[in-house]
UniProtKB/TrEMBL annotation:
GO biological process: regulation of DNA-templated transcription
Segments traversing the membrane: none
UniProt keyword Disulfide bond, yes or no: no
Taxonomic path: Eukaryota, Viridiplantae, Streptophyta, Embryophyta, Tracheophyta
Domain B box-type: 5-47
Chief place of localization: nucleus
Name used for this protein in its record: Zinc finger protein CONSTANS-LIKE 9-like
A GO term for molecular function: zinc ion binding
Cell compartment(s), UniProt: Nucleus
Keywords: Metal-binding, Nucleus, Repeat, Zinc, Zinc-finger
Amino acid sequence: MGYNCDFCGHQRPVVYCRSDAACLCLSCDRNVHSANALSRRHSRTLLCERCNSQPALVRCTEERVSLCENCDWIGHGTSTSNLTYKRQTINCYSGCPSSAELSSLWPFFWQSPSPGESTCEKELGLMSITENIETTSWGPTGNTVSQNKNSAGVAEVNNDNNADMGSGWDGSSSILELRSPPQALDQPAGVTDTSLPKVSCPQTKRPSLCEDDLYDDFNMDEIDLNLDNYEELFGVALNHSEELFENGGIDSLFRTNDLSAADSDCRGAVAAEGSSVGLVNAIQPACSNGASADSVMSNKTDSVLCFTGRQAHSSLSFSGLTGESSGADYQDCGASSMLLMGEPPWCPPCTENSFQSSTRSNAVMRYKEKKKTRNLVTIHAIEGFHVTAVLSSKECGFAFPSLHMFEKRVRYASRKARADVRKRVKGRFVKAGDAYDYDPLNQTQSF
DNA sequence: CGGACGAAACGACCCACAAATCGTG
DNA sequence: CTCACGATTTGTGGGTCGTTTCGTC
């Protein structure tokens, strides 16, 4: 991640593609995401103008700068003057919007002095919309450019917590609003508003999240481990996942996904992001309502909660063979890295440990009991999943640059197919014609 | 309570070779 | 500048082995 376009390497990056985890200039964004129908579905947003590595979530109208969650928190979250900063939520787009539509989506963007001066951006004028009503994989009603026009491209968020707190969570919310509720962005540091409801999505009639909910209803073990097969996870019914969505407040994120079977690869990414984000969102109000940040983040047994998040990711991503995730995964999957930093912006540190020790120990016990079966479920899902989802770079028209998001994703189906049928000796490939002890084709010993 | 021991889990490594990438003319 | 060609690098999966973690005595 740097200060040049990840694709062309010399233009200044302007937008961030979550699906590709790439920072792109507008020209490359257009080129890359017009390659095929799948790439057109990628959800993009502005790049953080401060760190130049993360997708921007908000636009500070005072400083006229687009900021990611981290930079926004660093710049405003700890400052008492953050109340004076007026910020706007930055919406995503997909497809290949024209310059006019981009300007409609991000009116501030074209006022900004930084982007748009290169020939790269001038090409925008030649852009043609092939899917101007292209729906993304995220929004319940289709997070489209046209949809965003209704709100002038921005969902204005004041620092008044009471002002339209739930606007980002209604049926027309955009992906960004789903990921980062306005109250999380603007809630002053160190303030725990006990008047806030316990639900993460006040207007979506989600069940309240109490401490027990955190363990019982929201424990991924209760959900993903019951999956008999991976189809159940990504099937139409989504029976078990329903529980996740109900409890995590991301139901609308998935139900309306109209992804084709051919796009199942992206579907995995959707699941990964959605799951983690939902967890973060659900954890947030729980913390802000008395659950100590320290109890969540720092103790040895804090793994109860942290692993819950890890579970959500590893179980649904269908790519992490190890079943565990690194910190980078959280970054990539869209979850706030604050979760890893120990001081989430929505959860000011406090010393009181509000978790009952017995409750925690019970949760630990449940975790340990189910730990063994977890990986089996995940691996089964992986085996049946990426075989059908993988496309080679030739088949796709371009290489996936976001491989670090899912470390074990197969990049080249042809190589996998060859490796699958290659003869081995004790797991190692052998030269063609040599004696072998394992033939994947007939599964018999040839000695 | 702490050390010793075994079991389980985990990750790194290896192999051949076609495909992808790079460098040169 | 484009193309062709050779050299180099990459990536793929199953088994093995060393290390770490966990549980029991």
